[in-house]
Amino acid sequence: AVVSTQSTWEVRVFHSSGSIRTQVMDYDKILLELGRFGRWQQRNAILLWIPAIASGMNILIASFSVMEPGEYRCRNACDLGKEFQFDDFNSSLMFPSMDQGDAEYDPDKPDYCNYYASSMVDGQCVFDNTSILSCARNAEFTYADFEMDVTVATKNNLVCKSSWWIPMVDTMMMVGLLLGSFIFGVMSDKIGRRHTLVIAVICCSVGNLIGVGMPNHWSYTIPRILGSAGGEGAFVLAFTMSLEYSGVREHVPCLPWVTWSTLLANMIGTPFAIGETIPVFFALGLKNWKTFQAAVSATM
Q: pTM of this prediction?
């Protein structure tokens, strides 16, 4: 039988004669006995970069899937057709923030939610710079071209009075990171590091895949929690296992004050950063957020 107390294990050996012999194993001493940084440690150190990469990929998925458009406007009185475009009219005529003669002029931080009232006069659209209107929450919007063709933000019009939903998605990601660091940390002590790592990677990938099928913006935030929890669990376990597998006896050549375990635990941030760059390459070719997120999630 094994009884664990923090960093020590009490091992009770039961003999056929009925006697009981108790031995105490100290985890710190186990690390000293792991030996040098051999092939087994080297192989595991490389393999542990994979879940760290997946964790980094998870962080930037929403940066593209929920990307907010740079320029947009809601339908005005001159947009008589079913379809209308952002550049149908001159921006300086439509928006006070783009009108040099208006006190609200600020081209560096344009406000596309407030616009001049308009009307059709003799077939021409005339803007009244004395009357300023605001886009309603249920207004129709059109968007200028930007890095993505379709995102959660443009599909659900998360601009103006609904723009707070975009940071809400990031907030749900942070909730997932909080839950993941706690849940998977405790789980790894209960069922083992490797089993927990597999579960964490599956949660990361499946959580983001589920998000692809969500019909609206608020339902998208729910699987975002699951995916982020799995991503955090994968990174924490990659860090912990890199630290534990290497032992603390052997030092890095030319750096006698640094052990391999210390170096590998600190270097695990490198694959995480590499993972953060991977969604960028997917976004170069996949401009629809559903296709983009499905491809990135499947790659995890």
A: 0.82
Burial of 20 (0-12, 13-18, 19+ CB in 10 A): exposed
Q: Give the model's confidence band at 250: pLDDT under 50 very low, under 70 low, under 90 confident, else very high.
A: confident
Residue 248, classed as helix, strand or coil, is: coil
Alpha helices in the chain (DSSP H): 27-32, 39-47, 49-65, 91-94, 152-155, 165-191, 193-212, 217-245, 260-267, 269-285, 289-299
Both tokens of residue 49? 């970069």
- Buried-state track 270-292, b at ≥16 Cβ within 10 A, e below 16: ebbeebbebbeebbeebeebbeb
Chain-wide mean pLDDT for the chain? 88
Per-residue pLDDT of 27-48, as tens digits, reads 666 666 665 677 888 888 899 9
Q: Which residues pair with 150 in a beta bridge?
A: 288
Contact assessment for residue 225 and residue 179, using Cβ atoms and an 8 Å cutoff? yes
Helix (H) or strand (E) holding 141: strand 141-143
